[in-house]
Amino acid sequence: MRSLHLAWLTLAAVACGTDPVAVNPRTTSQLVLDGGLVQETPQVIVLVVDDTDTAEAAQLRERVAQSVRASLLAVLGSRWETESCGSADPAQWHAGDVRVVVARPSAPDAAALLTSREIPALAWTTKTSTREEVEAVMAGVTEALGQRLAEPGEEYHPLRTARRALDLVTGALAPVGEAEEAFVASLPEDRIARLLVASTRDDEGPGIASDHVPSQAALSMTLDTEVVGPFTTFDSTCFAIDQGSTRLQAWSTLMHAEPIAFRCEDQHTWDMLLHPGWAECGADCLVRPIAVDAGGVVACQVVIDLVDLDRCDAALGHRDPGGHPTFVERHGRELRRCEVVQLAGADLESCRHSLDCPGCPSGFCATEVPELVSQRSCEPSEHASPLRFIGGAIEAQRGWISITCSTEAGE
C-alpha cells in the first residue's frame, strides 16, 4: 500500500543553536528538540471517467464519486486521528489542500476540463477539515461527472485526455486560454497529482498507447495512477487477470497500474481505489517532565525558521526574537526566525484547561486537557509532552522548529 504523502511535525532530540531558557533550582537539565516543520502535501486528483450516456457508464461515474468520497474521508481521519500523525485538538488548525479536476474524454480540449473555477466545490482548501466539507466536495464531483455527456459523433479518447490533463496540472504542459491559465496559476507549487482513468469501453483515439503516456516531468509529480476498464477477473477479485488486447490494457502496463474491472462489485475495492494510504508517527514522549510553574507558565522557548522572509506574523502567534528581525541559514537556504508566543492570562488558562479554547489567539501552552494528554501514548517511564500549539502557530510550510525546555529534577 502506498504511504500517505504527509510529513507532519517531526522532532529529534539534538543540540542546536537555540538560546537556553532560564533554569530554576528545581530543574536539572534542558531538553532541546529540533526538526522539520512540514505539512500535508497539496494534491490534485485528476478524474478521467467514461462520459457515455449509458446505464453502465452512469453507474461507473457514481462509483468513482464514492471512491473520491472514501479517499477524502481517509484524509480527514488522518488530520484528526493521532494514530495517523494528526491531532484531535479542535483549537489546532487541521489544514489541507485537495483539488479535483474532471477531464471529460469525449469533449474537445476547450471543453474537456472542469476545475474549481467552474465548480468551486472541487477545491477543498481548509483549516478546519469537517465532514460537511467532504460532502460539499462530493456534491461538486458528482455534478462535474454528470454535467456533460458525450455527444453523437465525438471520438472517445480517455488516454489522450488523461495525458493532457496530467501534464497540465503538474506544469509540464503550458495552459491554453484564460481559464486554464488562471487555474494553473492558482495551484500550490509543491503539489502532487493522482490520476484515475475509468472506462466501460476501450479508447478510440489516434496513435498507439505509448503516444499518450504523460511526460516524465508529470510522472515524477504523480503519486499514483489507477485504471478501471472492461477487463476480465476471477469471481473473487476485482483485479484483472485477462485485460485483452485493448489500448487501455497497453496503457495501464506502461503506467505501471494494476487494472481493475469496471464491473467490480466489491465495495472495499472501490473505497480503496483512491485511498491515500497511512503514515505512522511516534508519540511526543520525554524522559523527564517539562518544568511548569505554579501559574501554568512552561519553561520553554519555541522558534520556527520560515521561508517567508517578510515578517513574523503576529496573527499566527509569531514575533521577532528580542524584537529584532533575525535570519538564519539551514541547508544553504536563508530563513526568517520567529519566536512562537506562549499564551498568557485568560488565554493561557483556557489553553491549559479548555478543549475548545474559545476565542484563544494563536500560540502555545502546556496543557492539562485530559482529552489531549491522554491520547499521547508513552511508556510507563516516560512523560507525555504537554505542549499544545493552537490557531496555526506551527502550520507553516517547509519550515523548521526548535524547542528548548527546562525539565523537572529527577527523583
Compute the separation of the termini in Å.
46 Å
Proportion of strand residues = 15-25%
Tertiary shape: elongated
Poorly predicted tracts of residues: 1-27
Largest sheet: 7 strands, antiparallel
Tally of separate domains: 2
In total, the number of strands is 20
Estimate percent helicity: 10-25%
CATH architecture of the largest domain: 3-Layer(aba) Sandwich
Look at the structure and give the CATH class of the largest domain.
Alpha Beta
Oligomer classification: single chain
What structural class do you assign from the helix and strand content? Answer: alpha+beta
Q: Which series of helices and strands comes N to C? A: EEEHEHEEHHHEHEEEHEHEEEEEHEHEEE
Assign the CATH topology of the largest domain.
Answer: Rossmann fold
Average predicted confidence as pLDDT: 88
Report the C-alpha radius of gyration, rounded.
Answer: 25 Å
Number of helical elements: 10
Considering the chains and any ligands shown, give keywords for the structure.
alpha+beta; 2 domains; 7-stranded mixed β-sheet; disordered N terminus
Describe what you observe in this structure:
The chain has 411 residues and is α+β, with helices and mostly antiparallel strands. It folds into two domains: 12-39 and 283-408, no CATH class; 43-272, Rossmann fold, CATH 3.40.50. Helix content is 25%, strand content 24%. The chain has ten helices and 20 strands. Strands 1, 2, 13, 14, 15, 16 and 20 form a seven-stranded antiparallel β-sheet that branches. Strands 3, 4, 5, 6, 7, 8 and 11 form a seven-stranded mixed β-sheet that branches. β15 (326-330) and β16 form a beta hairpin. α1 (55-80) runs antiparallel to α3. The longest helix is centred in the N-terminal third of the chain and has 26 residues, at 55-80. The model is unreliable at 1-27 (pLDDT under 50).
